[in-house]
Amino acid sequence: MKIICIGRNYAAHIEELKNETPGNPVVFLKPDTAQLKDGAPFFYPEFSKNIHHEAELVLKISKQGKYIQKKFAHRYFDEIGFGIDFTARDLQDQCKAKGLPWEIAKAFNGAAPIGGFKSVDEFEDLKNIDFHLTINGETRQKGNTSLMLFDFGTIIEYVSQFFMLKKGDLIYTGTPAGVGPVQIGDRLEGFIGTEKLLDFEVK
């Protein structure tokens, strides 16, 4: 399986990082080794001093497809979950300053914690899904899919031009404003609506 990530998909987050608003989804990949499952702890890596949390809704692909039209995109995912796109911001800034790719800042071991999933059938409106992240019980990020620049269908249509989607692939759909550093000892909990789907500690 592969992890496809979408960057710069919420206007307020683009503004907080002083990035340009994209005309198309910004896409990058994480390997399967980035997954952190079943509430396993995240061990702070030695190569960074500035790991940031980025809370995201995650689509689980349910069947194979490529060149998928937006109007058919809903047929290709059946569950929505909660994940974290951990970013070594110091490494990312160094790479971007040199015009280099920044996979090492996004795709390292454990950089994609993933929690539980909910069936698409449980949602009344995919364009109005609330989600939030708490750290040590304090809300740090809040988002709603209505604020996305590129909705689920647009994302699937776009990425499937370049990558064949396969059953079990994950698509991280972008993070709202409020990203920031995590510290050893922090407890991160992720919610869709009021349901907690992710719970782990930084060690």
Automatic annotation (TrEMBL):
Keyword Magnesium tagged: no
A Pfam family the protein falls into: FAA_hydrolase
Keywords carried by this UniProt record: Hydrolase, Metal-binding
GO terms assigned for molecular function: acetylpyruvate hydrolase activity; metal ion binding
Name used for this protein in its record: Fumarylacetoacetate hydrolase family protein
Source species, domain of life: Bacteria
Domain Fumarylacetoacetase-like C-terminal: 2-189
Cross-referenced SUPFAM superfamilies: FAH (SSF56529)
InterPro entries, per the entry: Fumarylacetoacetase-like_C, Fumarylacetoacetase_C_sf
